Amino acid sequence: MTTTHITNARVFDGHTLLDATTVTLDDQTITAVGAPTAPDGAETVDARGGTLMPGLIDAHVHTSIDSLREALKFGVTTELEMQGYWTPEQRTEINADDTIADVRSALIALMAKGGHPSELMEGLGEHDPRAGEHEGWVMPSAATPDEARAHVQAFAKAGSDYIKVMIEEGTAMGHPGLPVLDMETIKAAVDEAHKLGLKVIAHAITLDATRQALDAGADGLAHLFIDQKADERIVNALADADVFVTPCLVVSSSLIGHDAAHIADDPRVASRLPQVWLDTLRGRFNTFPQGNLQHVLDSVAALHAAGVDILAGTDAAIPVPSHGGVAHGASVHHELALLVQAGLPNEAALAAATSVPARCFNLADRGRIAPGLRADLLLVDGNPLKEISHSLDINTIWRRGGRATNTDGPVSVP
Ligand SMILES: [Zn+2]
Asked: Ligand 1 centre and the CA of 37: distance in Å?
């Protein structure tokens, strides 16, 4: 059992900057904030004026053990799987492995037969996430309300932490005319999930799909529509319904045709990521070049102003440049920069990657710095509350109180 006393820190608790300059960790837990002296036998870590914040949460990924390792190198201590694996049994080892990020999962989303995301799986070969250790999993699909209810029941039983529903007819993905779920089927899934106490997160990339998600009673959006700018009507409707939004600006930018080469070129990223992921950052989807990223940024600003919860998510998935512009861990920092570019105050952007996703996903043990919480922490040099790019000036990462890594030169996770 190790006790750590961090001193001389600027402490951002997930909501706001505190007056305190010390945080004490005992074993896996934060035990004190602002204690004037170190407990007996504690290791003291001098933050030298750097900023200590909760470990980051990426609220939209499709992950693997390797990707969870990449994520942790960038201070992302929890990833939220939005279509993939990681039942509670499969993740017992993940939860206990302090060299990789922790994970929660929707398991497999409700989708139409032959609908999204099957168009993304074409021609991926060895990168097909259905292959390998998860061979034998099938992509279930639903066509009727009864099938939707059965899907939700089955995945709730398998351990889904929340239910994901795909509302995608393909235009923004470069595959117009994909099969879709009808409203009755989507509603049946949402109602069943709510009966079982699970939140529903909807994939919706167009305004029409977003309206459907709202009408069906979804709790959160896994993207923000990119086909038009938000008008007052949709902003008010999302605010009134208390729907949270994970805009995934990094992947929206990629869909619209922008790569993330500037992130790959950043030495703080290049030193930590393998070549295949740097190549992926330099790639892009480019399936909706008629889109306008500034419109999406304006929509985020309008939603934030209306009080809608905004969460940082990336949609990071597999290392394939045609699905590029996004990488685990690194892209959370890109997302923070885009949220600030959209007009969110730096504190709100940092909250979007810490306390807000923790609240929206009922992760009561993390996402904030307070006594009794899990000791997932990120110490960066500088002050991301003033200059958001300082979030990448990573000094030390703690996962459950253990030092995951520190970064004198290229990171090596033991
Ligand atoms: Zn996704």
From this structure: 45
| Distance (Å) from CA 383 to ligand 1 centroid | 31
pLDDT for res 143: 84
Quote the ligand 1 centre to 197 CA distance (angstroms): 23
Q: Are the CB atoms for 172 and 253 separated by under 8 Å?
A: no
Whose CA is closest to 186, among 110, 244, 109, 117? 110
Per-residue b/e over 319-337, b at no fewer than 16 CB within 10 Å? bbeebbbbbbbbbbbbbbb
Tell me: pLDDT of 410 over 50. no
The partner residues of 24 in beta bridges, in order of sequence, read 5, 32
Distance 281 CA to ligand 1 centre (A): 16
Position 114 scores a pLDDT of 77
How far apart are the C-alpha atoms of 167 and 379, rounded to whole Å? Answer: 38
Residue 133 has pLDDT above 70, yes or no: no
Q: CB within 8 A of 225, min separation 6: which ones?
A: 204, 205, 206, 207, 209, 210, 299
Output DSSP code: residue 287: S
Task: Judge: domain 55-366, CATH 2.30.40.10.
Answer: no
Q: What is the mean pLDDT of residues 265-291?
A: 96
Q: Which of 247, 239, 248, 187 is nearest to 213 (CA)?
A: 187
d(CA 351, CA 54): 9
Q: pLDDT tens digits for 145-176?
A: 999 999 999 999 999 999 999 998 888 888 88
The structure tokens listed for 410 are: 């290229």
Sort strands 51-54 and 10-11 into parallel, antiparallel or unpaired.
parallel
d(CA 102, CA 283): 27
Q: What is the mean pLDDT of residues 133-145?
A: 65
Mean pLDDT along residues 321-336:
96
State yes or no: pLDDT of 405 exceeds 70. Answer: no
Could you tell me the distance, in angstroms and rounded to a whole number, from the CA of residue 85 to the centre of ligand 1? 13
Per DSSP, helices labelled H in 36-144 are 65-73, 92-96, 118-121
Tell me the domain boundaries of the chain: 55-366
The backbone region for 35, taken as left when phi is positive above 0, alpha when psi lies in -120 to 50, beta otherwise, is beta
